[in-house]
Design brief:
Helix content: 25-40%
Distance between the termini: 18 Å
Shape: flat
Largest sheet: 8 strands, mixed
Radius of gyration: 32 Å
Strand order of the largest sheet: 1-2-3-4-5-6-8-7
Length: 982
């Protein structure tokens, strides 16, 4: 919306303040600045506000706004006077305004840093979180304009408004003056205010998905009279699933005399339906979708599933159509799944919704499934059905223009019917938020992800997302840090999901193997070793083993305290007549199920070869009862939120310390209690399901890989219960203010918005402010200068080139070490220039020798999409060639730093490999934490590379450093909550 000439030309309309938000009940609304064009909207809005609300706003009866009031409330300079409105369908439902004031409470301009703030929300929309959302956004606007405090006068009886201020999480002061409550809020975000904001976001977004998946009524728009069309197919699938709500068929082409279609009421438009419609499934050509969306919005539909294609997957024109579709739907307060979606499914007995193109609704189960691909969705549904697994919910989001994997994680965290969340993703619209949500969800239930389109430049054409430059290996490492189980294929995702949904988490990596085939047992044993597990020697029951023998052996293994999991291998056994019995899988399934039912908190998996009906029998023999719910209190939410910022993973088998487990071998839940639920509590699935469905696999490698993922996830869960800490560094080695001054000075001399690299001396000075000492170098443009430099530094010295093409390339001969005297230095200088070129080309320098140790590389960089990332690896071509680098998100905790150096494959080199002296890993961890603190405190530091860092048995030496400064990229995870617009 453009400003009018009446508004100050110095402060143009701030369109970046516009935002779509999800309200408490799951509906959406638009927040935007108020302009002079809003006079009629403001008057209409005010007329719909009750006299009581008007009294609370103006402290006196105020039945109508005067022309002067309207002018005042619609004319703003967007600096000292700002007004925001919340709109649905283009009409105001709430407003907020601030006016900058001085110490006496009179109107003022900068540098005054206080403002008076006031809210007004229509009575019909009170309780939806409108005022809370407005407070977040007006506070962000005020901070942008240099305002640090809000002052508000509230009548004591206005409890709702007092609660909005109290619950915001900001530091506040309260006093009672002249019959009103005087509140002062410090607008600097606090840990509490950020937690409040994210908690509201979580509940609102979860509710928005829940409204889509559990509607009371569904209209299929585009259901035709002819069989075979998309709309008619969805209608029939909806009815075949036994949908418990009301269903309607809508098509403007219906004859006026048509009353029903497939037994449900048929209408030409939504306006003909007398009752509320909660969900609309749109299956009409793309050019007719805007008309259908408008019809839905005008009649109060809460959400849309758009199956229609012809949007962003068709190119630039389609992408603009897609953006307009989202804008139109959100303007009415509706969320969208799609376009180009396959549909949604909810198997809950109270809903039984199949609003998809899947001809058969899956069985009810404990797995939630989200996919960005219809084809992959079909394959996953088929695979899960074939293996006897059920689902709790299913969303195929298509181009995912609105509802995304992040929303599904919000829903899965809350959903008591979901024990495991499976996601097939082809793009990450907001990687920072995804990592945060996945970390919190993984703290209470497993999250398994397959990432398609992993290679640069291969983002699907329908997905308009911010570009991330970080490689897929880094994305995978960051997912692991968040507790996400990252697998490569949808088959592996199903394999892991089946084990995690039906079996308890293992207490450790010790695996018992038993079966009636020595060869299959050995294959399983080898697979365990390859995956980093600790298998016991296989127990061979021989081919003559009966189902009873399997039952006895499994019961014994489950009772054995020296193993944490059991893999049963089975081939057709030999009967009394000497012939192989291939079809009696039900007998074996019954025996195994009875052994497990004896009671053990150890996971069991079965590897079978050509035993007909075994997998199906194991699925059928499993209990389908929902697990006992556990109560998650607000304290548990807080701990999950803490986990979302401080937890990390450890690779099994590294020198990192192993965490303890509970008595049952399952990870300790964040907080569990059997006390009655409090008003702020929600129910969630039990942290570890009771032994139930035994998963069966046709190959040992698949079973072992799924078990290995469960072992690593269980270890992450145990560690997440006691999160790491970000050290404070209370000594005087960190000068945050001094570093900020240096950065400001350097950037002020760089007109290029891309920033500038620092010189060696500038980088040394900046890093020194954070206690990172870089060994100095002196230029050596000729032999005499080299000798003089060595005399200053003291022998022995190193002579090395700093030309970009030779930097850190000792293998090309650009480095000469341990030069003990002037003669050796002159000889090395001559050799260097004879071999590689003139000094002016080589830019040689002299540096004092460091103690011998292991050469490593420490880096930090900021990616606009993923955030700041800390990386570590050994120096040299082999590590670079093999990609042996570990990554963690910033800010890194003490545990992150410890695990970072232990998670590379070459980590044994640091810990005394082949009899070498272990190096000072404590000093290395401290260096990592100091660098993490630097880039976290100063986002203008967009990249740092310390190379090489020589880590000796005592201490370390940073021999080279490069730093680049630039204006920091905008962060989309610290401001007020808003829906993304791609």
């Amino acid at each position: 919306m453009e400003p009018t000439p009446e508004q100050s030309p110095h402060h143009a309309y701030p369109d970046h303040w516009e935002a779509d938000v999800v309200l408490r009940d799951g509906g959406t609304a638009r927040i935007r600045p108020i302009t002079t064009d809003d006079a009629e909207r403001l008057v209409s809005f005010y007329e719909q506000v009750s006299d009581e609300s008007k009294y609370y706003r103006f402290f006196a009866p105020y039945p109508r706004l005067s022309d002067r009031d309207v002018h005042r409330f619609t004319h703003h300079d967007y600096v000292d006077r700002v007004g925001l409105a919340v709109t649905i369908g283009g009409e105001f439902i709430g407003t907020v305004r601030y006016d900058r004031i001085d110490d006496t409470g009179r109107p003022a301009s900068a540098p005054a840093d206080e403002a008076e703030v006031a809210f007004l929300v229509q009575d019909a929309h009170q309780g939806r979180g409108v005022a809370s959302a407005l407070l977040e956004h007006i506070a962000a606007v005020a901070r942008e304009r240099g305002i640090r405090r809000f002052a508000a006068e509230v009548l004591p009886a206005n409890n709702k408004m007092i609660k909005v201020f109290r619950d915001g999480g900001y530091t506040q002061r309260r006093s009672f003056e002249d019959g009103s409550v005087h509140l002062t809020l410090d607008l600097e975000p606090t840990e509490k205010s950020l937690a409040v904001q994210r908690g509201r976001e979580q509940r609102a977004e979860a509710r928005s998905v829940q409204r889509l998946l559990a509607p009371g009524s569904v209209a299929v728009i585009g259901a035709g009279r002819n069989h075979g069309g998309v709309g008619r197919t969805v209608l029939r699938n909806l009815l075949a699933a036994g949908f418990t709500g009301r269903a309607y068929a809508v098509n403007r082409a219906f004859d006026e005399g048509l009353a029903t279609l497939d037994g449900v009421p048929a209408h030409r438009s939504l306006g003909e339906i007398d009752e509320q419609v909660d969900l609309a499934v749109i299956a009409v050509p793309a050019h007719r979708v805007p008309e259908a969306v408008a019809d839905c919005g005008e009649h109060g539909v809460q959400g849309l599933v758009v199956l229609s294609a012809g949007y962003a997957e068709r190119g630039a024109d389609g992408r603009e159509l897609q953006r307009e579709l989202v804008r139109q739907a959100r303007s009415y307060g509706m969320r969208i799944i799609g376009p180009n979606a396959f549909g949604i499914i909810n198997t809950a007995e109270s809903v039984r919704l199949n609003a998809s193109l899947a001809p058969e609704s899956p069985a009810r189960g404990r797995i939630g499934l989200f996919t960005q691909s219809g084809a992959i969705g079909i394959a996953l549904l088929s695979g899960l059905h074939r293996r006897g697994a059920g689902l709790s919910s299913f969303i195929s989001a298509g181009n995912r223009a609105d509802v995304s994997g992040n929303d599904f994680l919000q829903y899965s965290f809350e959903d008591p019917d979901t024990d495991v969340a499976l996601l097939y993703l082809e793009s990450l619209g907001n990687p920072r938020k995804f990592t945060r949500l996945a970390r919190r969800t993984a703290a209470v239930k497993p999250v398994v992800v397959v990432k398609g389109a992993r290679h640069s430049g291969s983002t699907p054409p329908g997905h308009a997302v911010p570009v991330s430059r970080i490689p897929d290996a880094t994305v995978s490492a960051l997912m692991r840090q968040a507790g996400v189980i990252r697998v490569d294929t949808v088959t592996e995702m199903v394999d892991a999901g089946l084990l995690l949904a039906g079996q308890p988490l293992p207490a450790g990596p010790r695996v018992a193997i038993l079966g009636n085939s020595e060869s299959l047992g050995l294959l399983t044993y080898d697979a365990c070793l390859a995956e980093g597990l600790r298998p016991r020697p296989p127990i061979d029951l021989t081919t003559a083993a009966s189902p009873q023998d399997f039952r006895d052996a499994l019961a014994e293994a489950l009772a054995d305290g020296t193993c944490d999991a059991v893999i049963v291998t089975a081939i057709p056994w030999v009967g009394e007549n000497g012939e192989a019995e291939t079809g009696d899988g039900q007998v074996l399934a019954k025996a195994l199920t009875r052994a497990v039912a004896g009671g053990s908190a150890k996971p069991v998996a079965v590897v079978h070869v050509e035993i007909g009906g075994l997998a199906e029998a194991l699925a059928a023999a499993s209990s389908t009862a929902a697990p006992r719910p556990r109560t998650v209190t607000s304290a548990a939410r807080t701990r999950a939120a803490t986990t979302a910022t401080t937890t990390q993973t450890t690779t099994t088998g590294t020198p990192a310390a192993q965490a303890t487990t509970t008595g049952t071998g399952t990870p300790a839940a964040p907080e569990a209690t059997t006390a009655p639920a409090t008003p702020d509590a929600t129910t969630a699935p039990e942290a570890a399901p009771r032994p139930g469905r035994i998963p069966a696999y046709p190959a040992a490698e698949r079973a072992v890989r799924a078990l290995a993922e469960a072992v690593k996830y269980a270890q992450w869960r145990r560690q997440a219960a006691v999160p790491g800490k970000v050290p404070e560094f209370l000594d005087d080695t960190i000068d945050e203010a001094g570093a900020a001054a240096l950065i400001e000075a350097q950037l002020s001399t760089a007109p290029d918005p891309r920033g500038r690299p620092l010189t060696h001396d500038e980088a040394r000075e900046l890093l020194g402010r954070y206690g990172v000492d870089v060994r100095p170098t002196l230029p050596a443009p000729d032999p005499e200068a080299a000798v003089a430099a060595a005399a200053r530094l003291g022998y022995p010295v190193a002579l090395k080139t700093t030309a970009p093409h030779l930097r850190h390339r000792a293998d090309l001969g650009g480095v000469r070490l341990d030069l003990a005297d002037e003669e050796a230095l002159r000889r090395a200088y001559g050799d260097l220039t004879d071999l590689l070129g003139k000094p002016a080309e080589l830019l040689p320098v002299v540096q004092a020798m460091a103690p011998r140790g292991v050469d490593t590389v420490v880096r930090a960089s900021i990616d606009a999409a993923a955030g700041a990332v800390l990386s570590f690896g050994l120096a040299g071509a082999p590590s670079e060639l093999l990609g042996d680098t570990a990554h963690r998100l910033v800010p890194a905790t003490d545990r992150d730093a410890a695990e970072l150096i232990r998670s590379i494959r070459a980590a044994p080199v640091l810990f005394g490999w082949r009899g070498s002296a272990p190096v000072d890993t404590a000093a290395l961890e401290e260096l990592l934490l100091r660098l993490s603190r630097l880039v976290d405190d100063h986002p203008e530091v967009v990249s740092v590379a310390l190379e090489p860092v020589v880590v000796a048995p005592q201490g370390l030496t940073v021999l080279g450093a490069s730093v680049r400064l630039a204006p920091p990229p905008a962060r989309n995870d610290l401001g007020p909550r808003r829906l993304p617009n791609y």
